[in-house]
Amino acid sequence: MKKLLFLLFLFFSLNVFAEDDSAEYMDNGLPIQFKYMSGNTPIYIEFTDVIQGRYLVDVEWFPDWDLAPLLTGPANINFRVKDTNIKFTIKSELFHIAQRIFSLPNYRLNAENITKKEVLKMKYWHFANPPFAFGDMNFDGIKELVISEKRGGQRSYDAYKVYLLQEIEDTQYFNVVNLTHVKPYSDIDQTTQFDWDNNTIRVMSLGGACGSMEELYERVYSDFPLQDYKFKLTEKIQYLSLDEDGNDIPCTMNVYNVVDGREILDEARSGPVN
Description:
7-stranded antiparallel beta sheet; flat; mainly beta; single chain
């Protein structure tokens, strides 16, 4: 079965990257351009469309074929705000572009354009799953910058790094706030649940059928615009299969209401679960 999966993977890889019958391949069967994808050789990308109507973006990307999926690796993502001098760079550790897009005629990757450091010009809107996007992550109606870290989350789910883009109307003030170490932003991945009706974020920690945890964060609004992005923990749910002495017990759910930082067991909502 593993051999069959590898052959299927190889078949699709070759079809994506092959340009003609003279294409060269490494001993492992991968196209020769993968020789340069060891995390050390940059691939340069320029998005030719204006993203979100204001951002001009180019990327210096170091794909490492030892990482899964293929075409994943560190990158410097450079942003410039159109018609201004505002520039900033965000570093991604697991920047990924799906192989399929390189089957488009104008987006072919080969050993020559990699070694010559040619800039690959691409359209952002051609990406079904772009490596970065803009979205409202904290219910204030303003879009944050969200960087996708491919398979960088728990259990190989994609993780997301969130950056707040702060501006003050009628001024030239522009600031990028790194929220990757601020809860709950630091734990956002593909399992995270957003509730726009109640302005809450539910973060999952997956530890198996009866070893997981959920944390519910509620938006806390501020009258100070530059500090208006915070949440507070209001609820924690733990699923347990062992008691405090380490003895096996039926799968049990403990629900805690978090008040002023204190966890208070909600006995009415806690107990054994199927």
